[in-house]
């Protein structure tokens, strides 16, 4: 992926000085303004590409919607409770927190097995081998928890609305919906941020769907498990035990829960040392710099799809996905809106890349259609809000080699385009069953038209372009010579009026890539 341009960053809280120093040493302008009110932050944030916060700054939807070119919100610490991640995602803004697994995150990753072992030894004396652990939240800590619990012989299943199932499958985690997960688990551990969609995630209703005697662990944020519902489940025996180091109020005031004989609890210390504070500032600065320099992306809580876009050659494939989306959107303008999109990647080169290719295609399809500005972070969210069903798959060993095929459904009809990257540049191989003799270079001004092949077609189109003062720079014809087929012409500039083509062609569309 092309490096993300971050020129100005606002630090709105007291962060270790090393954060500012690292950012400035890498050419990023930094402004520090603390103790701003919400209105002050809304007025200030319009001028920045990035925002770094700790926990006091509340980055609400109002703040996010007031941004102009904000591309990243960096939380110097773990958790993003003070950031409206959903609003940031919809706006296409990356939300990142400190990633360093050698510090707090690794401690949290060990807390789950410790709590489970303590519950086993104190409450029931059962084996861990063969038991099913449900992991709700499959970010970096969820991944580390899965690895550790698998070493005890536990089967790991999980749920995450962002991390793709094919990614978690490589960790040995079978991803599924919460409705499928609840009844299977012997143990449940949560590793999500606290936000409206996760508050009270484990409640009376979800406990009722679990196995009787299920054990739960919360080392993430107080409030993800409804404490009153947990106490009721413990008292009824529906929940067989709980390990907690976070609470809605800290220190906890719900003594009936803390003192329950089937609860093991400990204080929530987090990054409460001078060394940890310094590391948080250092880590978030280095993560931002690595992203800007195109080295990689770590710690993103809402943009895992971008992690694989830093591999060599990915930039051209992303350009291809966006271009194919634009072509299909342009060639079906009169028939929109579309209801379904199917993306199929093929070949070894794109193995594991279906995530960012799908997002890239949706960027092309939604550009100038959605009210929001689509990018790789928000395109799937915008598609879902628009009622578009998006599916994807990957095929290997097919004759076309490395390619991306996109099929959209509009009012019961299907439209398809297939592209690839050849010679380091994106090209179109096929459009609506018209296979081009020479691949169409997806760059510059392009005119697509559908017509029956005839000796008079090309001279007629050339004459019309000349009359309009437009030069023909390239011409791509279909391999088939019978029936209506799609043709492509590279233009020096776009035509002022496509209506002039109506006597010559059945359909026409033009676009700039």
UniProtKB/TrEMBL annotation:
Which GO BP terms sit in this record?
Answer: L-serine biosynthetic process
Q: Which residues form the D-isomer specific 2-hydroxyacid dehydrogenase NAD-binding domain?
A: 122-270
Q: Which UniProt keywords apply?
A: Acetylation, Amino-acid biosynthesis, NAD, Oxidoreductase, Phosphoprotein, Serine biosynthesis
Enzyme Commission identifier(s): 1.1.1.95
Q: Which residues form the D-isomer specific 2-hydroxyacid dehydrogenase catalytic domain?
A: 9-302
Q: Does the keyword Oxidoreductase apply?
A: yes
UniProt subunit comment: Homotetramer.
Q: What is this protein called?
A: D-3-phosphoglycerate dehydrogenase
Q: Which organism is it from?
A: Oncorhynchus kisutch (Coho salmon)
């Amino acid at each position: 992926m092309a490096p993300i341009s971050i020129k100005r960053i606002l630090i709105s809280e007291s962060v270790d000085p090393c954060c500012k120093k690292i950012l400035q040493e890498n050419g990023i302008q930094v402004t520090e303004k603390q103790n701003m009110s919400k209105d002050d932050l809304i007025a200030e944030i319009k001028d920045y590409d990035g925002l770094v916060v700790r926990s006091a700054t509340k980055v609400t939807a109002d703040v996010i919607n007031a941004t102009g070119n904000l591309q990243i919100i960096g939380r110097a610490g773990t958790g993003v409770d003070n950031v409206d991640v959903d609003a940031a995602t919809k706006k296409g803004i990356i939300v990142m927190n400190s990633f360093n697994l050698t510090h707090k995150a690794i401690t949290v990753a060990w807390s789950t097995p410790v709590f489970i072992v303590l519950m086993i030894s104190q409450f029931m004396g059962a084996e861990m081998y063969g038991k099913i652990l449900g992991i709700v939240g499959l970010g970096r800590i969820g991944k580390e928890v899965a690895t550790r619990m698998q070493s005890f012989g536990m089967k790991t299943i999980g749920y995450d609305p962002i991390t793709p199932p094919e990614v978690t499958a490589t960790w040995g985690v079978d991803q599924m919906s919460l409705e499928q997960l609840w009844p299977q688990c012997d143990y449940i551990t949560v590793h999500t941020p606290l936000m409206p969609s996760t508050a009270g995630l484990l409640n009376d209703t979800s406990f009722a769907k679990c196995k009787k005697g299920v054990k739960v662990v919360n080392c993430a944020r107080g409030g993800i498990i409804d404490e009153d519902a947990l106490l009721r489940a413990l008292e009824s025996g529906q929940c067989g035990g709980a390990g907690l180091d976070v609470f809605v109020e800290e220190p906890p005031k719900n003594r009936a829960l803390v003192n329950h004989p089937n609860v093991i609890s400990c204080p929530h210390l987090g990054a409460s040392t001078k060394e940890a504070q310094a590391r948080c500032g250092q880590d978030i600065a280095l993560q931002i710099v690595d992203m800007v320099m195109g080295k990689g992306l770590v710690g993103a809580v809402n943009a895992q799809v971008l992690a694989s876009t830093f591999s060599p050659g990915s930039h051209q494939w992303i350009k291809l996905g966006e271009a194919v989306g634009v072509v299909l959107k342009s060639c079906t303008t009169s028939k929109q809106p579309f209801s379904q999109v199917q993306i199929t990647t093929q070949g070894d080169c794109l193995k594991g890349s279906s995530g960012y290719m799908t997002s890239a295609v949706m960027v092309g399809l939604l550009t100038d259609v959605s009210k929001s500005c689509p990018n790789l972070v928000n395109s799937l969210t915008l598609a879902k809000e628009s009622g578009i069903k998006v599916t994807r798959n990957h095929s290997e060993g097919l004759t076309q080699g490395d390619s991306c095929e996109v099929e959209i459904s509009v009012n019961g009809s299907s439209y398809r385009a297939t592209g690839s990257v050849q010679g380091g540049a994106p090209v179109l191989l096929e459009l609506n069953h018209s296979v081009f003799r020479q691949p169409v270079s997806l760059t510059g001004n392009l005119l697509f038209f559908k017509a029956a092949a005839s000796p008079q077609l090309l001279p007629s189109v050339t004459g019309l372009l000349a009359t309009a003062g437009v030069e023909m720079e390239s011409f791509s014809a279909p391999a088939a010579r019978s029936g209506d087929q799609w043709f492509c012409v590279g233009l020096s500039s776009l035509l002022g009026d496509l209506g002039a083509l109506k006597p010559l062609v059945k359909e026409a569309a033009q676009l700039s890539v």
